Amino acid sequence: MTTTGEEWWMYDEERQEAARTVRREVIGDDESHAGLPAPEGYRDYLTAMAWGVWARGGPLTTRDRSLLVLAMTAATGRMDQFRVHLDAAARAGVSDAEVDELLFQITAYCGAPAGSAALSVIRTARAARETV
């Protein structure tokens, strides 16, 4: 079957809205990228792919998914995304103590550079949180 345009990736509108809802619940209404140019449909695609998997249900909780995303973004060196998800971790049910423990896992399985980079982001985020 040949598809054109957006239909090859778009969820139906109900699933797309569920993905948007989960995104808002976890990271809030982050409009930091709203003014940046992107191809038509890209933001919907990103929401469908990244947040649709959170909205699909299954045995993983929002907390579980948050911890996994933190580990994966640290492992792959995506520190900008690590920071976004670290800032949202409490809303997803992740405690500072769990983030601290995750740091040990990141360092053990991904190496000292990944652990050190994550620690730097954690320190910066916590310092910023304390000044608010």
The parts where pLDDT drops under 50 for at least 5 residues are: 1-5
* Main sheet summary: none
- Content of β-strand: under 5%
What assembly state would you assign to the polypeptide chains in this entry? single chain
Q: Which overall shape is indicated by the principal axes computed on the Cα atoms?
A: globular
Give the end-to-end Cα distance, rounded to a whole number of Å.
Answer: 54 Å
Mean pLDDT: 88
Decide which structural class fits the backbone.
mainly alpha
DSSP summary: helix tally = 6
Radius of gyration: 16 Å
Question: Helix and strand string, N-terminal first?
Answer: HHHHHH
- Amount of helix: 55-70%
Secondary structure: number of strands: 0
Structure description:
- The structure is a single chain.
- With 132 residues, the protein is mainly α.
- It is 67% helix and 0% strand.
- The protein contains 6 helices and no strands.
- The N and C termini lie far apart (54 Å).
Offer a quick outline of the entry:
The chain has helices at 13-27, 42-55, 62-75, 79-88, 96-110, 112-131.
